[in-house]
Design goal:
The complex is a heterodimer of chains A (85) and B (192). With 85 residues, chain A is mainly α. Chain A has 2 helices and 2 strands. Chain A is globular, with a radius of gyration of 13 Å. The interface between A and B is medium-sized, with 22 and 24 residues. The complex binds zinc ion. Zinc ion is lined by residues 8, 10-11, 13, 30-31, 33-34 of chain A.
């Protein structure tokens, strides 16, 4: 069986190849989009904005629908479990 | 069988049973009690494995999502051609068609978190398809169009047939019956 796909603890993005990981470090639990240039997790508001953008760009959701969906998604991810509710 | 193996077996059984009943009767009309009863375990046992009903729905959706991302060449092998990607998409949807039809038709009444996962999976698909499509657009093989139009046109076509599958085929999965035809038609639409 294939190893279970890891995913970013902040945004849920699948971590499939080395380049997907924060700073290219495969021991990181975050993806490259969720950290700054020293590997520090970005603030919730930035991640929320990025995530909403992801819904908008890929499928054409409105700002409002995309933001709500991003909030609903982040709510249960390890990095944000108790934030932004 | 060790206790751990037994536990995993029960968990997998619950996920499989949930998928079967969701597919058969719909997601919102299937209760945790229905699922436990069908598997002949106590209602309490179900909650040992899944603390909420939503967790169990999420487990079924995650399993589907993993199949999808494996089939679409996750883990580095992302240089699949557009046609192969779309073909792989159809074949996983066909495999999960009974359940997937419920996901799509009940989209607006799903728990919000489940819905956000479904559309996040769609976002990944959209990026993956468009990356492959963009390469062919740049070569002038297919028409230039936006990522949203490209992805939504494909999904619109596939979902219409899934949602109305009783009208378009005597047999299921309908994607096995009409998949190749849809693929051919889609390429006919997008080619330059
Ligand atoms: Zn991330």
């Amino acid at each position: 069986m294939k190893p279970k796909c890891e995913s970013c603890n902040s945004c849920g993005m699948p971590l499939e190849s080395k380049e997907d990981f924060a700073l290219g470090d495969t021991s990181s639990v975050y993806c490259k989009y969720c950290v700054d240039n020293v590997g520090q997790l970005l603030p919730y508001d930035t991640i929320l904005k990025n995530n909403a953008h992801y819904y908008k760009e890929s499928q054409g959701l409105t700002e409002q629908a995309a933001t709500k969906m991003a909030k609903d998604l982040l709510k249960t991810l390890p990095a944000w479990k108790n934030v932004g509710v | 069988m060790t206790r751990k193996e037994q536990k995993e077996k029960t968990r997998a059984g619950l996920v499989g049973q949930a998928e079967t009943l969701f597919a058969l009767n719909g997601i919102s009309s299937t209760t945790t009690a229905d699922i436990a009863k069908a598997l002949k375990v106590s209602h309490g046992t179900l909650f040992v494995h899944f603390s909420t009903r939503e967790d169990l729905i999420k487990a079924v959706v995650d399993e589907f999502g993993e199949k999808l991302s494996t089939a679409l060449g996750a883990r580095c092998s992302s240089d699949l051609k557009l046609r192969d990607l779309l073909k792989a998409h159809l074949s996983v949807l066909a495999e999960y068609e009974d359940f997937y039809m419920r996901l799509v038709s009940e989209s607006q009444s799903l728990p919000p978190h489940i819905r956000s996962i479904l559309y996040s999976m769609n976002a990944s698909l959209s990026y993956r398809f468009y990356r492959a499509a963009k390469a062919e657009m740049d070569k002038g093989v297919i028409k230039k169009m936006t990522q949203v139009h490209f992805f939504n046109t494909w999904m619109g076509l596939v979902h219409y047939y899934i949602l109305n599958r009783d009208l378009f085929s005597e047999r299921t999965p309908i994607l096995v019956e009409v998949g190749e035809d849809l693929l051919r038609h889609f390429f006919h639409l997008i080619k330059t």
